[in-house]
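Working notes for the structural subgroup meeting. M.R. asked for a predicted model of this chain before we commit to crystallization trials. I am recording the input and output together here so anyone reviewing the notebook later can reproduce the run.

Input as submitted:
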Amino acid sequence: MPPRTVKFRAATVAAVLALGTTLLAASPQSGAAAAEPAPVTDYCQGQCDDILPPGENGNATLVDILGNKAFGTHPAHSDDQLDRYNGLVAGHDGLTDRKLTDFFNDASFGVPKDQVESVTSPRDDVTITRDKASGVPHIKGTTRYGTEFGAGFAAGQDRLWLMDLFRHIGRGELTSFAGGALANQGLEQQFWPQAPYTEADLEAQVAYIRTHEGARGEQAMADAQAYVDGINAYREKSKKGRYFPGEYVLTGKIDAITNIGEIQPFELTDLISIASVVGGQFGGGGGGEVQAALSLLAAQQKYGVAEGTKVWESFRQREDPEAVLTIHDGTSFPYAGKPATARGTALPDAGSVTAEPLIHDRTGSAGTDRKAPVKAPATLRKAQGIYDDGVVPEGSLPGSGSGAQKRGMSNALLVSGKHTASGNPIAVFGPQTGYFAPQLMMLQEIQGPGISARGVSFAGVGMYIQMGRGQDYAWSATSAGQDITDTYAVDLCEPDGSAPTKDSTHYLYRGTCTAMETLERTNSWKPTVADSTAKGSYRMQVRRTHYGIVTHRATVGGKPVAYTSLRTTYRHEADSIIGFQMLNDPSYVKDAASFQRAASNIDYAFNWFYADSRTAAYYNSGMNPVRAAGVDPALPVKAERAYEWKGYDPAANTAAYTSFAEHPRSSGQDYYVSWNNKQAKGYAAAGFGLGAVHRADLLDERVAKLVEEGGVTRASLTRAMAQAAVTDLRGEQLLPELLKVIRSRPVTDPELNSAVQQLESWRAAGSQRRESSPGSHVYTHADAVRIMDAWWPKLVEAEFRPGLGDGLYEALTANLATDESPAAGHGPSGAHSGSAFQYGWWGFVDKDLRRVLGQPVKGPLAEAYCGNGDPAACRDALLSSLKQAAAEPAAEVYPGDDDCKAGEQWCSDSIVHRPLGGIAQKSVHWQNRPTYQQVVEFPAHR
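Returned structure, recorded in token form:
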């Protein structure tokens, strides 16, 4: 049993016993209506708002899909939050508290009688009431089972097809389910190796929660079963009634005429599969140690071991003293730092690293995008090929696509009541999870025994609200990304004692030559109306060890090894359900301290934020392993007992974890900001990029100014977020330094001087990427934005490649991409995804230029790079790259794609809600902003 669990039970046994029989008494047979529960008091009193574009309704019948393709029509409530979300770009300048509901939903509990659109009662003990304004389901149950059954039924109504997609993505079966499009092949090849499981593994995770988490664990699995029962009830009713999602017809699952075919029943293990996708993408952290080792070796090859290590560490920035912090009061939370003397580090021999092959036995169109369209009935031709580019287009899901990095996503702004006009804390926060139609999350309100909350849940795991509001408090999260994943170098062996090779399939585990476990998925597909990809198949294969999944092969000191990836949450994909259950329980969360305890039971790496009428608070969650003394978590380590996690047991992947007190946490700080930045002093960065300039600076400087002025309101804090959402980080934070170097002498070239003047004007106006007028689709400073987009990658290369050399420059850019602008052709985010400026060389450029300018730099790079430290040579390099950029036409800076013509700047930036089903949505203005967002200010408390 993990020590964290033991400590938790000791601290909260009284609370668990207080659950009594109230939550456990209901059973699937309890269909009779119970007594009407006492009315729930809404302490937000109309001051809680939220938004989740494009709309709540994510299911579309075949008729709906064909209507959308032929006439552009949309099902009710599938797009009615999109214009309000988009409207904040133009509307935030004159925003007042009264105008907030022009851009957000009223997130009050319940539905006024005159606003009721429909009432459904799938059982006698639950009702699902939908409001006229947005169609959000308000689920109200008189029994616990009925409440959760209703939540599952509502999920089926709003996200049945999406849930089916994601359970197949999690199981590595997407191509067999939805078609062999190249993007589908890539998606399952990226996700399944991160969380490969057998059916027995999935069942074991369900059993683990039941048997290791006490009464709450039993209740969680009872709730999950009721939720699954509700999904299946809707699945059966919609199939019989012929109002199921039309995608099942278009992908060949059900015949449109005879209704022959089946939507496979959902099971509890499907929830584990979905949780592995959601948690792994948004709540993971660490990993990448092999690539880090390669860049370290490149630095040592160029500079020698000692100096090369120093140079590499200066780029790695584990503990940059200039990094923006969420906890900025100086409190330190040491974790995963660089040891004084490293032990057990296992660097590969130069040139020996090879990636573990995943795909085998390709046939037909596997590995290609070859099409063989079927002859579609005339009635279906408008929808033919809707999935030819994949059900999830490449790069649109966070962390997916070629060259992608895991995007942290999400932001939060909170101000203490000491600095607000009302004296109550204010929060503007939400998860930034990409843009899809329908969204990955769904809005809902759940009221029943032991549950009282409104907010969002990821579709398919929506037993509880995962981010939202309770009766007198609200909470949200940002991805934290601290290091919960390590890379081990396992020595290879042969069972007969012969000499091993890099291809050996046995390894030494605590002195015994042990066979690697082989996990496989064989997928095949054939063309359908939706996906014209020609018939094909392949087999995915991974090797699993007691130290995790094999990712690479190499030699270390001439001996063959396999590098493996081990994360603490592997085999524990859904354990976080306990923390979410607590957050939804009004008898448990009563203040900031109880919120922090609830959040501590969430195992994925998230930053959690809380606000009630009295306190704003923060807690960083995650199963942080206690590492052996001297182990460097940034690099691969030998797979020997001396270097294992403390208390490590591979059977269920458990270990000792850092205590509640060791996690960054705070209550009552003057303000908090988070945009996937560094949490606190001492909490070492798990990867590259948490340096002197970070997109969180766009929030921190604005909120700090509001706090200094005092009298903060919901509108002013929302306005600060909205301003940051349309601001170019490079223009605001780095352009002043670039211009200072350039203007150190007169620019005599007229064309160059004109480009510099355009950049100066843009910077003076706020460095925004914003329309000249609503609907113009032309930026106010279009030429300056184009110049910056073309210049940035060129100036980074001109500044750093000459000094670093080709090998080290390319190794470091493999660790951290140089750019992530909103433009479709730039950075690792993928086109039209909204999120921007998380990953880039902003901090490196900043530190290097300040050094050239003679300004003080804390935590400088080990060497000077721009012009080798000479101001005149640096200026020449910048001007030369600027001249190239200024001459680059818009058609080259913004190449065309399926959504935009070449040269269409606004369109290239624009947000596109990628259709996961058959309904498409219009493009909207770029915003670097949470997908789901709350604006809350509680004036009262229980």
